[in-house]
Amino acid sequence: KYVINRADVRRSETRKDEVKSMTQYLKSVDANERLELKGLEVSAYASPDGELDFNDKLSGNRSATATKFFQSELKKLEVGQVDLDEVFNLMNTAEDWDGFKDLVSKSNIQDKELILRVLSMYNDPDVREKEIRNISAAFTELTEQILPQLRRSQLEVNVDVIGKSDAEISKLAANNPSE
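The structure assignment produced for this chain is given below.
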C-alpha cells in the first residue's frame, strides 16, 4: 500500500507477511522441478480521488516501483534462470472505481447506500467524485477507511505444473500404483 500521491515502496510494507509468503512461495517454485515460473503480473492502482491524468501517471509509477522491488527480491532469492525483463507484465489502473465500490459495499460507512447510488447513476469519474465529495460526513470516512486501501500494488505469480511423463507413469503403475 502507498501513501496518498506517492509511488515509493515503503520499508514497512516490504516486511509484511504477504511479502514473506510470496518470497517463500517463489523459493519453493524454484526448488521444485515440477513447477515452472511463467510470469509475474504487477497490478498497480490509484484511488479515485484526484485528477485522472495525475492518477494515471501515479499508478504507472507505482507499477514501476513495485516491479523494481520484486525484481530485487528475485535477485536476492537467486531464482533459477529467469529473465526478469521478460517475466514481468505490468498493469495499472488510474482510478479503481471497482475496488472502491466493492469496499464501500462491504463497509459500515454512513451514507453507504447513497454513495453506491451515486456510483450507479454517474459514469463520468469527475462527476462521481464531485457528488461523493458533496456528502461531506461520508467523504471524511472514505478518506480514512476506504481510499487508503485502494492505493496499492499487487503481484500475481503464474506457475505451470509439469506433469509426469508417460514413462514415469508406466514405471509408477508397475512399481508403486498408489503414487
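Interim note for the steering committee: The two ends are 43 Å apart (CA to CA). The beta strands are 35-45, 88-93, 153-161.
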